[in-house]
Write a structure and sequence with these properties.
This protein has about 220 residues and is α+β, with helices and mostly antiparallel strands. It is built from 4 helices and 6 strands. The chain folds into 2 domains: about 120 residues, no CATH class; about 70 residues. A hairpin with a 6-residue loop joins strand 2 and strand 3. Helix 2 packs across helix 3.
């Protein structure tokens, strides 16, 4: 899949199909929508003009040749999102920290691009050498594998005719002080017949998660990476 732009890498591309994962669906049940903001500490990253920025891909990933652009926009977006939640995250390839320097952050994103493309086991869809682009799902799977984000937890929601079913997700860096992250909720009177909702929990590795269920049942265990 590609989109027209002034250059072939302007908007990146996705040439590798991803498998459907129904447990990763975000479901909307008619609840009120609200606007949220996720400011990133990173500046705008540029996947083009790499050589002008002083970025040599051969120095970032062993075996790569120097190129001036990559179709890797989703990795730039992932770096910006992760920096909001986990500033200073080390590069999965070379240990560079994820910080406010645009060139260093672009190198970080490129190293993640390399690791993520190796998921399929097909050399024809791996960079280097094939600049095939990838999707957000593949990136999330790789970040989970690396332990930078992790986990989803099945919750069986059973709202009654008068009370909603909810699951409150709290996070803590020390297992003492918890902060509310999100509340998954199904309105009262919704006929779901014990609908199982996978609660997605993407938090820094080493943090603690607390789930509080109302008119809902937590699974005996979740899935963690």
């Amino acid at each position: 899949m590609s989109y027209p732009g002034t250059t072939s890498t302007k908007f990146g591309r996705t040439l590798t199909p991803e498998p459907p994962l129904l447990e990763r669906l975000h479901l909307w049940h008619g609840e009120a929508l609200r606007e949220v903001a996720h400011p990133s500490p990173l500046p705008v990253l540029d996947q083009e003009d790499l050589l002008e920025q002083g970025i040599h891909t051969s120095h970032v990933v062993s075996g790569a040749r120097d190129v001036d652009a990559l179709g890797s926009c989703v990795f730039n977006a992932s770096a910006c999102s992760l920096a909001e939640r986990l500033p200073g995250a080390p590069s999965p390839v070379n240990g560079w920290p994820l910080g406010p320097d645009a060139v260093a952050a672009e190198r970080w994103a490129i190293s993640l691009y390399h690791l993520t493309t190796a998921q399929t086991g097909d050399p024809a869809s791996e960079w280097p050498p094939t600049d095939c682009g990838y999707s957000g799902l593949f990136v999330c799977q790789e970040l989970e594998r690396l332990g930078l984000i992790h986990g989803f937890y099945p919750v069986t929601l059973t709202p009654t005719s008068t009370a909603a079913a909810t699951c409150l997700v709290d996070l803590s860096p020390d297992n003492t002080t918890y902060s509310a992250l999100i509340t998954e909720s199904i309105p009262a009177g919704t006929a779901l017949d014990s609908f199982v909702l996978p609660v997605r929990i993407r938090v820094p590795a080493g943090w603690y998660v607390r789930l509080t269920a109302t008119n809902a049942t937590l699974a005996a265990s979740g899935t963690y990476y």
